[in-house]
Amino acid sequence: MARTQGSHSAQTGPRIREAALRLFAKHGYAAVSMRQIARDVGVQAGALYNYTPDKQALLFDLLKGHMDELLAAWKAEPTPATPTLRLEAFVRFHIRFHLARPQAIFISYMELRNLDPDNFAIIEGLRKRYESTLTGILRDGLTEGSFAVPDPALATYALIAMLTGVNTWYRDKGRLSVDEVSDIYWDMTCRMVAR
Amino acid sequence: MARTQGSHSAQTGPRIREAALRLFAKHGYAAVSMRQIARDVGVQAGALYNYTPDKQALLFDLLKGHMDELLAAWKAEPTPATPTLRLEAFVRFHIRFHLARPQAIFISYMELRNLDPDNFAIIEGLRKRYESTLTGILRDGLTEGSFAVPDPALATYALIAMLTGVNTWYRDKGRLSVDEVSDIYWDMTCRMVAR
DNA sequence: GTCTATAGCGTGATAGAC
DNA sequence: GTCTATCACGCTATAGAC
Q: Which residue range or ranges hold the HTH tetR-type domain (chains A, B) (predicted)?
């Protein structure tokens, strides 16, 4: 331990990802240099290229990893019996998951335009997949007669924007806990879509 | 006309702002160079500094001008008699105003972190001022008894996020007109806050 | 796997000619 | 008001020693 040179491979890889996530979230992808990331990790800039082919791959891996985690976590949630209960589960899941990863959420929304076109298409596909699960819930509730949204596609956009927006104002030491926020947002959601 | 050198001062100033707006919106502030802006305008990089002290001032002027315009436009709207009608006016105004200026909205949300602290505080103050007009409407409706939001502050965040989110998916040649979108969003808003 | 050194280029901003 | 030229520096990515 306390080595200042030599092999750290088991540590360095994850630490590069953590530093990149933190710095990209704080300053933006374009404003962060490979030298800054290296300094943050405690290695020289050249050493980063043992772990990533280039800066673009670093960004893509962060976003791809985040989207995979999001979809896996939602898939792992139990599926309640009624559309109303499924919608409540989605609202609470979305808020909880997003508030637990503010930096990953931030770059997932802010840095999309810095992805190469191929990478962008992949991330955009995964995001659409996630959003379509909400649209599915809304459609189920519509056909079943428990919801009355004017347009499921627009209601999906509206709800996702509303829920994700929590990340822009929520503070850990604030007036409300995650559960209290979730209660209020579920209340508003419910009123918005209920018959 | 068709001069390639000499004074164009009446034209160049606005054209620099337009180019900066377009390029910042497309690639991001940090990723755009003064040379790119100059090329877009058709002058050399040095000439830009006759119009702006530096790149930062260019960004700040765009955001400040946009916020001033937003507040002035809302102030110029008529004020309906009841909270419900005022809320409807706000919803329709917000969507219409934002959809008419997608690039300015985009950089207003994406480039805040690239503002110097002093500039950030000014823009943030103006934004809070705009949002507080919505909170005021919600409070009026609450005391009057026509609304039933659980928390006016959170309802403000939720509504602003929901309404601004339209900019992320709306396309001019899409399925719905601005008025149709506004109708649907007003319907959802109404259901969300109505008693 | 990390280091040092460097290639090749782009950056924001300024000086001075016209 | 715009141009050309330039300063001083930072950038990504690579090469080769260890």
A: 10-70
Q: What DSSP letter does each residue of A70-105 carry, written as one string?
A: HHHHHHHS---SSHHHHHHHHHHHHHHHHHT-HHHH
As a rounded value in angstroms, the CA-to-C1' distance for B146 and D12 is: 60
* Cβ contact A144:A83 at 8 Å: yes
Cα distance between residue B73 and residue B93, in whole Å: 9
CA B116 / C1′ D1 distance in Å: 29
- CATH number listed for the domain at residues B54-193: 1.10.357.10
Domain B1-52: which CATH class?
Answer: mainly alpha
**Strand D atom within 7 Å of B48 CB:** no
Nucleotides of C under 7 A from a protein CB: 1-5, 10-16
Structure confidence by residue, pLDDT tens digits, B124-135: 999 999 999 999
Domain ranges of chain A: 1-52, 54-193
Q: Inform me whether the pLDDT recorded for A2 exceeds 50.
A: no
- In this predicted model, what pLDDT tens digit does every residue of B136-161 receive, in sequence order? 999 999 999 999 999 999 999 999 99
Residue of B nearest to A189 (CA): B192
